Structure to design on (144 residues):
């Protein structure tokens, strides 16, 4: 099974889950003030366009199974940040929690550790873009 087939399998599953949430009414977010149409954007699971077309690796992690990402950020990441001495290791501990959550398989620990390193590096590069204005060109944005 190729990488595209595996990705498509997850996309279909996530899209069906999102459709079920919307059909149950849990994604209802009131009515639009201009068009007076109902909005069903309170809950979403995956944003395929952002995942496939993003430049920064961090967006890929945030938009893949978004609801779980929000839960892990709220319940794990924010609690780890309360301990100041764990500050530099926040991403690593959060991603290791996610690896344990997925199961005790060595490849999960390696891949989630890789994601943590990539997230830290992309955040560092993003801060360079903000701090040093001369780095703001399309070529530099494509590096991360």
């Amino acid at each position: 099974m190729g990488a595209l087939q595996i990705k498509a399998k997850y996309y279909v599953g996530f899209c069906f889950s999102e459709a079920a949430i919307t059909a149950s009414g849990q994604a209802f977010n009131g009515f639009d003030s201009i068009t007076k149409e109902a909005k069903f954007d309170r809950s979403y699971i995956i944003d395929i366009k952002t995942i496939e077309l993003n430049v920064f690796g961090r967006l890929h992690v945030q938009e893949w199974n978004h609801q779980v990402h929000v839960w892990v950020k709220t319940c794990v990441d924010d609690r780890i940040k309360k301990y100041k001495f764990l500050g530099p290791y926040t991403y690593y501990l959060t991603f290791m929690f996610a690896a344990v959550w997925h199961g005790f398989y060595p490849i999960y620990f390696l891949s989630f550790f890789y994601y943590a390193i990539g997230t830290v590096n992309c955040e560092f590069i993003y801060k360079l873009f903000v701090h040093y204005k001369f780095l703001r060109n399309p070529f530099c944005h494509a590096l991360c």
